[in-house]
Each structure stands twice: as C-alpha cells, then as structure tokens.
Specification:
Two copies of one chain form a homodimer. Chain A is of the alpha/beta class. Chain A is 37% helix and 13% strand. Chain A has an eight-stranded parallel beta barrel with strand order 1-2-3-4-5-6-7-8, surrounded by seven helices. The interface between A and B is medium-sized, with 35 and 35 residues.
Chain lengths: 282, 282
Amino acid sequence: MRDFSQDISALALNTATLGHNLDGYGAGWPPERVIDACAARGLGGIVFWRREIGRRSVEIGDRVRAAGMQVVGLCRTPYLVGRDAPAGLDEAKASIDMAAGLGAPVLTIVTGGTEPGTKGVLESQKILAERVAAIAGYASERGVKLALEPLNPMFGGNRTVLMTVADAVRVCDMAGAPNVGVAVDVYHVWWDSALAEGLAAAGPDRILGYHLCDWLENTRDMLLDRGMMGDGVADLKVLRAAVEGAGYAGPCEVEVFSSSDWWRRDPSAVLDVMVDRFRTVC
Amino acid sequence: MRDFSQDISALALNTATLGHNLDGYGAGWPPERVIDACAARGLGGIVFWRREIGRRSVEIGDRVRAAGMQVVGLCRTPYLVGRDAPAGLDEAKASIDMAAGLGAPVLTIVTGGTEPGTKGVLESQKILAERVAAIAGYASERGVKLALEPLNPMFGGNRTVLMTVADAVRVCDMAGAPNVGVAVDVYHVWWDSALAEGLAAAGPDRILGYHLCDWLENTRDMLLDRGMMGDGVADLKVLRAAVEGAGYAGPCEVEVFSSSDWWRRDPSAVLDVMVDRFRTVC
C-alpha cells in the first residue's frame, strides 16, 4: 500500500497559489519571502511566473538552491498560436533564457487558441508543432525542457488547442524534439476517462510535471475558481497513481488560482493548509 | 462532394434558441406561434423543453404534425446522479410519459454531477448506468429512446459525469438496453480529437441526435454564451461529416443558449439567421 503521508520534499509551490501579486491579489510577498516560507515548511521546490522574475533570474534561482530547494519550473512561454500569440518567437526565446537563468529544468507552454483563419484544433496543432520545433533546439542548448500543458476544453477558442494529454502527446510527436513533453494538471485532466492511455503514450520521459489543485463541484469562474486539494470532486489519489504509474517521479506542484477564496487569505495560512492537504488527500 | 445547401427539412429548432421564455428571456411566444414560425420556414421539426408543455403534450405534438413537421425530441429527464438528482425515478418516468404524449422519439438525458460520497466520474457512471437501465424498459414500452448527452468537461462536478461521446457509449454498454444511445452536441464535443472513435463505437443505431451551435472564440459564460453557427471556431462541416459518416441520418437541431445576444433579438429574425447559417456554414 502506498504511503501518502510522504516526504514534503515531493511538494512544490506554484506561486500562483498565493495570488502571485497579480491585479491586486495576494499579499505582495517578494520572491525572497516566498522562498523562505517554503523552505521553512520543508518543500522541495518552487515554480515561478515570469512577471515575478524580471532581470533577477540568476539571483532568485541561486537563492532557492541556497535555501535547500529546487526551481522546479517557470510559467510560461507566450502563446504560440491563436489570435493573442505575439508575432515571431523572440518572446518565447526570452522565456527560455529566463528559465535557464533560474536553473528551471522545465518551461511550461500554454499554447494559445485556434489560429485565425482556421476552425477546430487540428490545423492549429500542426502549426503549434512547427513553432515548438522551432524553439526546441534553442531550449535544449540551454538545458530547458518544454512542457506542453493541455487545458480543460472550456479554454478552447482563445487559450488552448490542446485539450487532453493525448492531444499534447500528438503534438510532441509532430514536433519531434527530445526535450518536449507534457505537463499534467488536475484541473485540466481530472475528468478524462482516457487519461491513462494518454499518459502511457507520453511515457515516463515526456511527463514533465504534475500540478495539483481540485475541481470544485460548483465552479463559478472558469479561470480563477480552483479548489484546494480535498475541497472538490477530483479523485486525487487515483490521478497521482496514474501519473506516477506511467513513470513520473518528479515533484507535485500546487497551483490554485482562486480570486474569491485562497487569494484573499494570509499566504502563511495558505501554505500551512497546502502542506496539510498534500499529506492527507493527495 | 457533399451539397451543404440541402433541404431545410433536415433542420430542427430546439426552442432554447429562442430563450424558451425562461427567466425573462425570449419573446414569450407560446408553442403554437413557434410551430407556425418553423413551419413557415420549411423546418423539419422542433425539440421542446418540458416546462413549455405542461399537460398539453398530445395537443402540441398533434399541432406540430398538422403543420407538416415532426417533434424531434424532448429536453430532458431530471438529473439521474449527483447532488441535485431527485430521489427515485418518478420524475424521470413522467418525462418519458411526456415524450410519449408528444410523439417525441427521443428524450435527452443530462446526467447530473458526481454522486455525493464519490470522487471523479467512473463510480458515478456506473450508478448512472443502473438508473438508466431501470427506466429504459418503461421508455421502450412507450416508444421513446433515451439519449445520453455528454457535456463539455467544464460542466463536470454539478451537471455531468459524461464528458465525451466515448464516455456516453461506455454507459450505454453498461446499461445494456437497445433504446439507449447518445446525443452529440457541437458545443460539448467540438474540441474532441477522439470524436470519430467515439462515434464509431456508438454506431449508427445509437447516435440519436446532432445539436448545432458554435463555440465562440471568447466564451464569456459557461452556460449561456453559445454562438450561432458560423460565429465561432467549431469546424461545423467536419463535425457534421463525422456524425453522418458514422451513420447518423436524423435532423440537425439548433440549440443556442445565448442570454446576452440571441435571446435578446426578435425570434423571427433569429429563425431567419438560423436558416441562413444552416444553409451556408453547417
């Protein structure tokens, strides 16, 4: 029987969980305070967002490691397809540079939506694969892996053209680069009865992240109403067993966007609850 | 090459498209006026909602047929699983009686959400299959087929435990009744790269409906911001070809929930646009 009260070093904080100081949410903690609070609780790592890093990537990365933790990843490239994708790949390459500066082994890709002039997702997936292939070598030279993150299908249209792990794996295959894989987020995949097949197709070397939160029974906002683990209907132990059963051995990263609940709480209390829930329900 | 400017008799109105007189939306047209407006435009049929029918099922059904159309279906049973499902199956049987009274060959099932005390969707799907099996004979005796409608995964938790056609087919198989099949709605399945496999597993006899609308690039409301065909990113011709390629030969039913746009327009104008879009983009 698996022991789910395991070492907290398997746990990582995605700073979005603390409101990442965005749009008036969060307590305004600078990265240093987040690092100290995570280290004090025995976490294994942190995932940052670009907006928190600015020109301080090397400094912040070193600070995390000095505190005994790892920079687990960086969120994220700009969109690569869809109406809101910037022209060219310069910003994507700059995000790779930032991940390398931080010492983050994984940079997450949220793809952006359906490419203008096309319908559905398949044509956009092909364009996406070409653009991923065009930056994969640049990332590889800098020691960075690229994690394609499928989003809940409700984000189709303007935010994603990857709705399932199977979608992401297909684009990995099309991109054909060894440092391109998949990020698996409970919020986006909890409902997928075919998840195990998608994970098997990915294989252990291409599962580059596992993101924890919960799906609330009554989700009031598509983007900013995620639940803390245990407060929703996602079968968290089964999901983790599936991801680890497919060979993933990396950290579990907690990423809770919650403008009406968790982002309004004291960050210290949020971290304490997060650690407790990780021990008990994940 | 398929001729997509085909006979309008393949087109059916789901009255939800006119706001179905709900919560102050819609123009308050009684069923008779809806029937006359559809017949005048050459539509083949209408799908009603229970709240519009009351005790007049036989009268309204006869009126539709006298106008040269068919009652294509009835929306819908109460939830069968989840916190909001009524106790017992009496209301479900009453909805079957209403469908039979109307002469509607198909009654749609939106399943309801994750069963209390469980997590994820698989356990709820098993309970759902038992309850569907428990009403399937009653429906069969009354000439009514039951159409399990998978919903976009964003409706997981409180509204559905079926997220894909493949999910619905699996529950059909578990229920084991010959009059149980699947309803395929563009809004819910447009994103699914595995749709063709799900439709093939259903087979021609179990695809009981095809619902048209569009997925807007920027969907502002999960429930009530559907687009009219042509205004979004769903690949409507490919979707219809997939459904008909799997053997479906029934009507195309337009179902647009749109509280901020189409429900605020004159119903006559909505019907005219609907007919035009069906001819040109579906």
